[in-house]
Amino acid sequence: MKLSEAGERALVELARKICRRGPQVRIGIGDDAAAIDIDGSCLVATTDMLVASRHFPPRTTPEQMARRAVVVNLSDLAAMGAKPLGLIFSVGLPRELEVKFVERLVRGMDVAAREHGTYVVGGDLDESEEVVISGAAFGVARRRELLTRSGARAGDLIAVTGRLGAAAAGLGLLLKRLPAKGYRALVRAQLEPRARVREGKVLARSGFVTSTIDVTDGLAANLWQLARESKVKFVVDRANVPEHPLVRKFVTRYGFDADDFVLFGGEDFELLFTVRPRGWEKVRWALKRVGATAALIGHVAKGKGVFIQVKGKTRALPDRGYEHFR
Amino acid sequence: MKLSEAGERALVELARKICRRGPQVRIGIGDDAAAIDIDGSCLVATTDMLVASRHFPPRTTPEQMARRAVVVNLSDLAAMGAKPLGLIFSVGLPRELEVKFVERLVRGMDVAAREHGTYVVGGDLDESEEVVISGAAFGVARRRELLTRSGARAGDLIAVTGRLGAAAAGLGLLLKRLPAKGYRALVRAQLEPRARVREGKVLARSGFVTSTIDVTDGLAANLWQLARESKVKFVVDRANVPEHPLVRKFVTRYGFDADDFVLFGGEDFELLFTVRPRGWEKVRWALKRVGATAALIGHVAKGKGVFIQVKGKTRALPDRGYEHFR
């Protein structure tokens, strides 16, 4: 069977089955990041690869490539509630590229890392046919504060930080070469994303958050991942899903379906999480203190699957989103 | 200027200048691995990317690719004297590949990691035009035991573990499609390398080793890197450089120059190090206890450059070896 028939999820499942888990390994393959016990803390580590032909829309600048490479990795740490310690990058580049490109790329990585309170500490340069940027981020989390995908319990509430759909709408705009005027915030959300590192730490410290994931594959796909890993049922109210204000205007203007961006579009890097009901107000206030918002979008129940209520009717939410090899 | 004109070393120097160094960063860009202070220890992290078209000789199996990806990363940790905690991999694959390839690749990673006393704990799968394997390894070292490239001092002795030249000779044999009969150990050294993790820990704990690097670019290039980073002069005696026994037979049989493999061929993954003279015998015995050998090949003096004595004459050793974009 070819990779394109199997799909990314089946391949990750295969890798999870094959790889033996060491005695210190608290979280192995399959979560946002790996976690390894060291003393009372956990070392948290993650890696993400960006391939030019697949991950960068036309005319992406080296600085934007750099920022995305920083953000995709830090976002995985944020989803575990970890404090970043550093970033390392392996970069594959065609030999005919200009040195200026590397300078702008590295400077972009340095700036984006520092904006998130961390640093680029090492790397490796190689020749390749197309631009490939593979990053790894590592950080620490207190063992009992570590956030995973598998802790959601029946009775929890489901919440998400920020507002969704902007990055995917921005990508749509770029790919269809629509005029950016009036929609610059959407393009910026796509090209200049931000990882929710502070928000992740707030969630971890609250003591009330039971599971977390970053919204990279799209809300629907990420809801499914949390529900599956936690072995519970999710019920979401469509009316409560926070949308970026420009998304509604954009879809109305061009005749798109908002769900394609808000439910099935990814790369917003917001944090989707479940929380004990009695902790919700505290979490919301703690987020507010770091300048962040969060909205309740549903609740966790016994059972399995992800359901969405739209105008009083409940239906199954398709498990559809960004997946490689599909 | 194009990357192919600048060369890898200039690019690394550029990155080192650009990236700001955080307060906890003990070792940043430019050494074998990065080191970050956490409590009394150092977190040590490294990344290395392998690109199929450049790093894998014809008919390399998925298991061999996997092993190399594990070893290049663990070797960097070994050169810092760190104990590995885990490995993570970002793998880019063409979508038309068979699932069986991924299965063999991941299994190979798991086996090779465990042979070195560590585990694969996470990763990322992406689509790319050619096979790209980017690994990151992380480990811990006691702060005062951390081995770097910059500690060699005048009066130190220069030593290297094991015997050199086998991996490069094996690569030569594969690329020129020469018969492997009688030379299987050379091919194995190329395709099934091993990282000197135990040796690195022995050197770190000895208290007498002043600088270390793993022999990946070739002895000459790695001597130059140590001498440059430590701001000292190296003088090496060619007659004392330990050669793999089959290398001499191989070059005689086919009319090659042994220096091309022993001095300028890389990927042996042995550890090159400098040691205080009074500690040499202790280090040698400590290595012996973990089944390793080491040979003295020269000494460190004030000044700069790397010199080699051949039949009583001393000449400058060319700073030549594996370098990308050249």
Topology of helices and strands:
Two copies of one chain form a homodimer.
Chain A: H1 3-6, H2 8-18, E1 25-27, E2 34-38, E3 41-51, H3 52-55, H4 62-78, E4 83-93, H5 99-115, E5 120-127, E6 132-142, E7 157-161, H6 166-175, H7 184-191, H8 197-206, E8 209-214, H9 219-230, E9 233-237, H10 245-254, H11 258-262, E10 271-275, H12 280-289, E11 294-301, E12 305-310, E13 313-316
Parallel strand pairs in A: 4-5, 9-12
Antiparallel strand pairs in A: 1-2, 2-3, 3-6, 4-6, 7-10, 7-11, 8-10, 9-11, 12-13
Helix pairs in contact in A: 4-5, 4-8, 6-7, 8-12
Structure overview:
The structure is a homodimer of 326-residue chains. Chain A is an alpha+beta fold. Chain A folds into two domains: 3-144, PurM-like, N-terminal domain (60s Ribosomal Protein L30, Chain: A), CATH 3.30.1330; 147-316, Phosphoribosyl-aminoimidazole Synthetase, Chain A, domain 2. The first copy, chain A, has twelve helices and 13 strands. In chain A, the strands form two sheets. The first copy, chain A, has a seven-stranded mixed beta sheet. In chain A, strands 1-2-3-6-4-5 form a six-stranded mixed beta sheet. In chain A, β12 (305-310) and β13 form a beta hairpin. In chain A, α4 packs parallel to α5 and α4 runs parallel beside α8 (197-206). Chain A is globular. Chain A starts with a helix and ends in a 10-residue tail after the last strand. The mean pLDDT of chain A is 94. At the A-B interface, α1, α2, β2, β3 and β4 of A face α1, α2, β2, β3 and β4 of B.
